[in-house]
Write a sequence for this structure.
């Protein structure tokens, strides 16, 4: 039986997902700064137009689905992205979750079981509500849960976010994806925590694994069943694409093709690294880079179409549907 995946424009059959970018951002903002210190390059209507344009050009390159991993902490605003989704030819999947890599915002620190304002954990309510009812009063339901940690260990606040994500996953089946600190081999502690919480590790993407230069580390993550996010192609201020390609090819040679997903972690607009900065310093950091440069290079290096189909279509579909 075909499974369905929620998108901004409704649930879609898994067979329509097609070529999928599993870790991108439409708009990364900071609502408090946007009110008090508007960014000179931010113009909402112009950026919505730009997003529609970029997603249309991806559709011309064969992309059918983009996962927007913008969650709490990154300025998620699904009403704004819904305007893009209504006009873009690709499907956009929304995410729930919390991007707090060490300390939670004060609201969460004071509200929850045994805390100053004692009651149910608002993180759990948020994640499950976003998945089951819709995000912020909209009909848009989340199709992924995004969590984060920095370094090689989880802080107590991050442990709490992981526990909330595990609760939401075990109840809904929606997959978990992480921001991990690849240089610190941070994915291992993430796997340990999630496994302890009862999450099957094949329902987890260890994000930013493509930034690691440590093959035994990556193989250890894959051997435990998780997907490795090679999800920052073009992000040359963090790592070189030639290294990502070298590590990717080593993993393919090691028989790990069924455990890897590719993406860019790019954004149409991000306040932290605005368009002018990206144009000047990381011109390849855009959502078309895989199709214009990386995949053609892999083909030239002898990676066959079946492997590329696995990376771009089969694996993301399995992640999003929890399929085997
Ligand atoms: Zn990201």
């Amino acid at each position: 039986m075909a499974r369905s995946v929620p998108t901004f424009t409704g649930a879609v059959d898994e067979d329509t997902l097609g070529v999928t970018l599993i870790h991108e951002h439409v708009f990364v903002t900071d609502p408090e700064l946007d009110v008090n210190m508007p960014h000179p390059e931010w113009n909402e209507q112009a950026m919505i137009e730009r997003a529609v344009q970029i997603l249309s050009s991806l559709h011309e390159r064969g992309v059918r689905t983009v996962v927007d991993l913008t969650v709490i902490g990154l300025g998620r605003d699904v009403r704004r992205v819904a305007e893009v989704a209504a006009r873009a030819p690709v499907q956009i999947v929304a995410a729930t979750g919390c991007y707090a890599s060490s300390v939670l915002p004060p609201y969460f620190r004071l509200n929850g079981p045994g805390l100053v304002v004692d009651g149910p954990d608002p993180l759990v309510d948020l994640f499950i509500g976003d998945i089951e009812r819709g995000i912020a009063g909209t009909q848009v339901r989340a199709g992924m849960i995004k969590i984060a940690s920095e370094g090689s260990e989880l802080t107590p606040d991050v442990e709490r976010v992981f526990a909330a994500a595990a609760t939401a996953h075990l109840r809904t089946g929606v997959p978990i994806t992480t921001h991990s600190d690849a240089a610190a081999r941070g994915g291992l502690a993430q796997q340990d925590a999630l496994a302890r919480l009862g999450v099957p590790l094949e329902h987890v993407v260890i994000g930013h694994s493509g930034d690691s230069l440590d093959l035994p580390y990556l193989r250890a993550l894959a051997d435990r069943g998780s997907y490795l996010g090679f999800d920052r192609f073009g992000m040359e201020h963090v790592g070189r694409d030639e290294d990502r390609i070298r590590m990717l090819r080593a993993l393919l040679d090691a028989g790990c093709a069924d455990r890897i997903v590719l993406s860019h972690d790019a954004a149409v607009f991000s306040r932290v690294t605005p368009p002018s900065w990206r144009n000047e310093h990381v011109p390849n950091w855009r959502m078309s880079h895989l199709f214009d440069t990386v995949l053609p290079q892999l083909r030239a290096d002898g990676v066959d179409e079946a492997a590329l189909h696995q990376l771009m279509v089969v694996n993301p579909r399995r992640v999003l549907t929890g399929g085997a």
Notes: The chain has a mean pLDDT of 97.
